[in-house]
Design brief:
Distance between the termini of chain A: 58 Å
Organism (chains A, B, C, D, E, F): Roseicyclus persicicus
Pfam family, one (chains A, B, C, D, E, F): SnoaL_2
Oligomer: homohexamer
InterPro entries (chains A, B, C, D, E, F): 4-OT-like_dom (IPR004370), NTF2-like_dom_sf (IPR032710), SnoaL-like (IPR037401), Tautomerase/MIF_sf (IPR014347)
Radius of gyration of chain A: 21 Å
Shape of chain A: elongated
Strand content of chain A: 35-45%
GO molecular function (chains A, B, C, D, E, F): isomerase activity
Number of helices of chain A: 5
Protein name (chains A, B, C, D, E, F): SnoaL-like domain-containing protein
Strand order of the largest sheet of chain A: 5-9-8-7-6
Structural class of chain A: alpha/beta
Largest interface: C-D, 63 and 64 residues
Chain lengths: 186, 186, 186, 186, 186, 186
Amino acid sequence: MPIVEAHVLEGYAPEAKRRLVAALTDAVRFVVPAPDEAITVMLHEHAAANYARGGVTRSPAPALPDPAELVLAYLRAMEARDLATAQGMLGDGFAMVFPGTGPMTTLAELVAWAKDRYRFVTKTYEAVEAFPAGGAAVVYTRGTLAGEWPDGTAFSGIRFIDRFEVTGGLITRQDVWNDLGEVRPR
Amino acid sequence: MPIVEAHVLEGYAPEAKRRLVAALTDAVRFVVPAPDEAITVMLHEHAAANYARGGVTRSPAPALPDPAELVLAYLRAMEARDLATAQGMLGDGFAMVFPGTGPMTTLAELVAWAKDRYRFVTKTYEAVEAFPAGGAAVVYTRGTLAGEWPDGTAFSGIRFIDRFEVTGGLITRQDVWNDLGEVRPR
Amino acid sequence: MPIVEAHVLEGYAPEAKRRLVAALTDAVRFVVPAPDEAITVMLHEHAAANYARGGVTRSPAPALPDPAELVLAYLRAMEARDLATAQGMLGDGFAMVFPGTGPMTTLAELVAWAKDRYRFVTKTYEAVEAFPAGGAAVVYTRGTLAGEWPDGTAFSGIRFIDRFEVTGGLITRQDVWNDLGEVRPR
Amino acid sequence: MPIVEAHVLEGYAPEAKRRLVAALTDAVRFVVPAPDEAITVMLHEHAAANYARGGVTRSPAPALPDPAELVLAYLRAMEARDLATAQGMLGDGFAMVFPGTGPMTTLAELVAWAKDRYRFVTKTYEAVEAFPAGGAAVVYTRGTLAGEWPDGTAFSGIRFIDRFEVTGGLITRQDVWNDLGEVRPR
Amino acid sequence: MPIVEAHVLEGYAPEAKRRLVAALTDAVRFVVPAPDEAITVMLHEHAAANYARGGVTRSPAPALPDPAELVLAYLRAMEARDLATAQGMLGDGFAMVFPGTGPMTTLAELVAWAKDRYRFVTKTYEAVEAFPAGGAAVVYTRGTLAGEWPDGTAFSGIRFIDRFEVTGGLITRQDVWNDLGEVRPR
Amino acid sequence: MPIVEAHVLEGYAPEAKRRLVAALTDAVRFVVPAPDEAITVMLHEHAAANYARGGVTRSPAPALPDPAELVLAYLRAMEARDLATAQGMLGDGFAMVFPGTGPMTTLAELVAWAKDRYRFVTKTYEAVEAFPAGGAAVVYTRGTLAGEWPDGTAFSGIRFIDRFEVTGGLITRQDVWNDLGEVRPR
C-alpha cells in the first residue's frame, strides 16, 4: 500500500502516461513512507463513450507538454541568441528577475542588461526539477556558468539556479540567482 | 476526468490525508489539462486487517512530516542561533553550499564563515515550495534578506533562494543562492 | 452483471440510500435484460475528508425529498381543502391544466373552476410512479374518483391520472386527465 | 460526487450504452442534488472471458430495445390502421383501457369501439417519457388529438395521455385518457 | 500485480477474513508466478444497507467454519472413542472407506471392523491441508500411526493419509489409506 | 456478494485466466456460504504501460502451468517407462516415498524397488485435485491400480492415492499410499 488508481480518457501518449504514473508515485512518496515496491499505480483508460459527466461524454484534452523540456528548449534558444524562438515560448504577463535587476518583461531588456555584465555565458546543467504547483508547473534548473567577463577574461564553475513558472505550456516567470556577483571584477 | 482513487491503510491524520489529496491533485494537473472541478480524488481507507501483501497484513507507517514545516523550523532555529535544535534536524551526510563556499558539513563551519560576511541576517519569506522528487522531498524557500554588514551599515530587500533535500524526515542537503555578492561592500 | 458501484459522500439517510439503490437498479433494468439476482448495486460511502474535487473537500448536499411523498402530501392537503399547506408546496412558475381548462396558476382559480363541476371529489390511488427525468422528477398518480355532481347525485369509479413535475423539492407543474367528461350530466 | 461505475459485459451498442449512462445519471439526480458537472458515470466493459458468476463465464444478453421507440412504432402502425404490425408488438396478457371502456384485449375490439366515437384521429406528440419501473419499462406519451367526429365535423387540440407497460420488448398494457368526453357531441 | 479486491458484507470475524485473504492469495499464486510482496489483497467491507442484488439488500451469511478445525475435532473425538460427538459432525449421506473395506456408513461399522485389526491406534499429524473444491471443502491429514496389534505388540511410525469432504460444515466423506497392510502380522 | 476483482497484467492465455477465475471463486466458497450465482469474479487486464510498482512498469510473468496437467503427464511417462521424460519434470531436491520405502531420490531407485513388487501396474483415475498451498501447488490423484503380481497373477481395483508438490513448474515431492499391502501375496 498505497495503491493508486487513476481513471483517464483513452488517447494519452505513452510518454504522457509515464509522466502521470511518475507524478502519482511521487505524490504518494511525499506523504507515505512506503517502500517503493509497495507503491502501485494503475491507470484505467476509458473510451470516450464510456465516460460522462452530467450525462455528457467527454473528449480527452491533449496532455500538457513536459515543462522541463519546454524550459530546456527556451534556454537553448537563449544561449544560441535565437530570441524569436525563445520569445514564442513566453506567455502573457511574462516577467523575469536576474541578480541585481528589477522585473524585466522583454528579452531585449535582458540582452541590453547582460551586455555590460559578460561577453557570453554558457550553462552546464547539474539538475532539472519539474514539479506541479497548483495550476502551474514549476521548473528549477541548476548547475554552473562559464563565459567571459567584459574584459575578456574567462570564468567558469560559477553556481546558478533558475526558477520558471509554466502555465498552459508557456513560460510566465523566470527568476535567476547565481554567484557571479561574488567573483566578478568591479 | 481524471478520477484518482488512492487506497491507504486507516490511521493517517487529517493533515496527512489533506497533503496526500493535494499532491495527487497536483500530479494530475501536471499532465492533464482538466478543469479543476473535473479532477476528483478519493481516498479509500482500509483497516489493517483488510489489507495484505503476500498474505501478510500490514500496519500503516506514520506519515512523513510536512517537509516545508521541517525546513521552516530549521531556519527559525538558525536565525535564533539555536544550533543544537537545528543540528537535530540534520541527517547523515548533510552538506551545505553557500555563495562562494565549498561544501560545509557542520553548522559551526557555517557560523565561522558567516562572521566575516555580515553581523546578522533575517529572512522575509515570499514563498515556500515543497515537492516530492524520487524518494526525497525537495523544499525551496525564497524571499529577501535584511541585516547588517560587518561595518554596521544595514541592508535589506536582497533576494535569496534556498534549496533543501529532506529524506526520512531529516535535512540532508542545503544549497543557498542570494544577491549579497551583488551589493556587499568590498 | 451488471455491477453498479456508486460513490457518495457519507451522511445520507437510509431512506435516501434505499431510493438511490432502487433507482440505480431500475436504470440497469431499463437497458440490460439481466435477471434480477444478477444486478448488483454497491454504495461506497466516503467521509468528506476523503473526497476532493479540484483539491477541495466537499460536504454532502441533503438528499432530495421523495417526490412521490411530496405529491401525495399535496394531494391530501387539496382534498382536505387546506389550500395554505398545498400552496407552500408549489414552486415558482407553477401551472396546472385540468380537463377543459387552460393553464391555471393559482389554487384559487382551480377551486373556482371546480365548484361548478362537482360538489366534492375524493381519490382512490391505484398507483404512484415517480421517475427522474433530466433535472426534474416526474410523478404520476392514477386511480379512480368518487364524489357528488353539483346536483347531489353520487359518482364513483371514474379513472384519473395526474402528472406532476417536481424541481428542487417543489411542484412546478400539474396536468390532470380523467373520465369525468365521459359520464357527467350535461 | 457521486461517481457511478457500471461494470457490463462487452458488446453493447453505443446507443444502448448511451441510454444506460443517461439512466444512471438520472438515477443519481433523482436523489442527490449535485450539480450536473459533479455527476460522473463510468462504464467498465469486460470481455466475457473476464467475468464469471459462480465460476461460469457469461455472454451479454442483447440490450433491451428503447421502449419509447417501440411505443412510437406501435402508435404509428395504429394510426396507419396497420393492425398486423401493431399486433406483433403486443405481449401475452395485453390489455388496454380507453375512456369509458373496460379492459379490451384485442385491437379488433378497439377498432369496433372507436368506430362510433370518431371517424379518425391523429396524434400530435408533445412529449414521450420512458422510465424503468421494476422489471418493466413504462412509457407515457402525451399531446393533442385531431380528427373528425362521426358526423364529419372536425376537432383538434384535445389533450391526451397514453401510458404503456413494456416487458421483454413487447407492450403488455395500454391506458388512455383524453378530453374527448369533455367536448364530443352527445 | 496481481491486486485482488474482494467485496464482502460487513460482519465477518477477523479469523474468517484472515482465511479469506489467505485463500485469495493462494488462488493467485496458483496461476501467477508473482513474488509474494507483489500479491496484494484488499477486502472491502460493505454495510448491509449499501449492497443490493436485484434491488434487495442482503445480510451476511455466517462464515463457514474452518474445515481443518472441524476434521481435527472429529479425529480427536474418534481417538477418544467419543462416538456421539463424532457422529454429530457427519452430514447426510456420509460414507467412509478404509484399507480393505468397502464403503461404511456408520461409525459403529467402523469400530466393529477395526476391532480385529488393532487394539488401538493414535495419530501423529505431519500436516493438515484444507482446500476449496467446487462447493465443498477438502481436507487431507497425514502423518504416522502408532498403536498395538491385536496380539499386543506395538507398532509405530506407519504412514497414513486421510481425505475428508466437508459440505455445509459437516463431514460427508472420509477415505483412509495407510501402510498398516505392509507390516501387520498375518 | 462477494464480488472479487482481480487486476492482472494483460497477456495471460484464456486457459490461465479460466484457472485463475476458478481458483478465486473456490477461495470465496471456502469461507463464505454464498450461493454460486452470487459469487462474481471480474478480471481487469491492464496493459503493461498502465501499471507500475515503485514507478517502474512491469511485464507479466508467464502463467504457471496447470500442475494437474504436469502431474498427469509425469504419470503417463512413468507408466510408459519413459524415464527420461519423467525425469525432466522433476525439480531440485525431488524425493518420493512409496508404501514401505524410505525416501527415494531417483526414478532408477523406484524402478529397482518396484521390480520385486509387481510385474507392472496401470492406474485408473477417479479424481485429480490440484490446489494452491503457500508458494507451491499440491496435486492429489486417486483411483485404482491394476496389474500383475511377480508370480503372474492379476490384480485390479486396488485403491491408491498419490500426493505431489509442484514448485516453479517442476515436481519436487511424491508420496504414494495404496492398498497393495492389504492384498499382495506374501
